[in-house]
Each structure stands twice: as C-alpha cells, then as structure tokens.
Specification:
Number of helices: 5
Radius of gyration: 22 Å
Largest sheet: none
Structural class: mainly alpha
Number of strands: 0
Strand content: under 5%
C-alpha cells in the first residue's frame, strides 16, 4: 500500500479490524469478487464518514496486486480459516506479545550491548530447558495455553 503511494489515512482505515482481515474468514470461492466488493464498499462508507477521499486508481492497483499475489500465487487455503473448526484456530499474537514483554523487562536498557543480549537470551533458554526437563520428570506442569481468539465469520 505504501509502495503504491496510497495515503496513510486510507491505509489506517483499511488495516483496522473487519476490513482487509475479513477476507480470511469467508469461503475461498467468495473472496473474489464478493468478499473484495464487500470490503471495498464498507471501506468507502467509512472514508465518507471521515470525509476522506477514496483514491480509486491506487486501490484498483492494490486489488490487482492482491488478486495476483494472494489469490493466485498464494491461494486462500494456505491462510484462510473459513471451514476450519473453531476449536483448532488460535492466533499467535498473544504468546508472542507476552514473550516480547518478558524480553523487554529482562533487558536493563532499550539497546543492550551484545554480551548483555546473549546473557539474557542464554538465561531464558536455560530456564526453558529446565522447565521442559521438569515437565518430563513430572516435577512441574506445563503452563496453561491462552484462550482461543477467533474472528467472526462474515456472511454475504
């Protein structure tokens, strides 16, 4: 979007929840044209409400790229969760964000030097290996997994 010089305020709206991400939860065969049309119409309404002009030529170029890349080269079945049992779908951002926070707390400064960085990572790895060994020897329990977060299915 940035390479196509789409205005930042338009990109910000498109990247909000229930716009572009809604294409990951609809039936594969309905993504083009129905899903894309649904997203574009909803997007245009939001821009109208915010008095932002829709950059039609730039978005046409984006959707052309999207169709070629994300519908032909990397087909929807590789990333689309439509049709997958809700119980097995889990988004990974929670655990990754938690680990990122844990690492941020472990470093004494925002830009640690190499020895400090290696020491912190080595300490984390050592604690993790110890935990795995303790779980295997039944001296500890595996930590609970996070709750499942599933986007709502979009019906058209």
């Amino acid at each position: 979007m940035i390479k196509l010089r789409i205005p930042q305020e338009e990109i910000s709206v498109m990247m909000q929840r229930d716009y572009l991400d809604s294409l990951t939860v609809i039936a594969h065969e309905r993504i083009d044209p129905h899903g894309i049309d649904f997203v574009v119409n909803k997007f245009k309404m939001k821009l109208d409400n915010k008095d932002i002009e829709y950059s039609e030529m730039k978005w046409d170029e984006f959707w052309s790229y999207f169709r070629k890349t994300w519908l032909e080269i990397f087909p929807p079945h590789l990333r689309n969760i439509n049709g997958i049992q809700r119980a097995v779908v889990n988004h990974t951002s929670g655990p990754l964000e938690r680990y990122d926070l844990e690492l941020n707390w472990a470093f004494p400064t925002t830009n640690p030097n190499i020895p400090t960085f290696v020491g912190v990572i080595q300490n984390h790895a050592s604690r993790y290996v110890t935990l795995l060994e303790d779980i295997a020897r039944k001296r500890a329990r595996a930590p609970p997994h996070g709750t499942y977060v599933v986007s709502q299915e979009v019906t058209m």
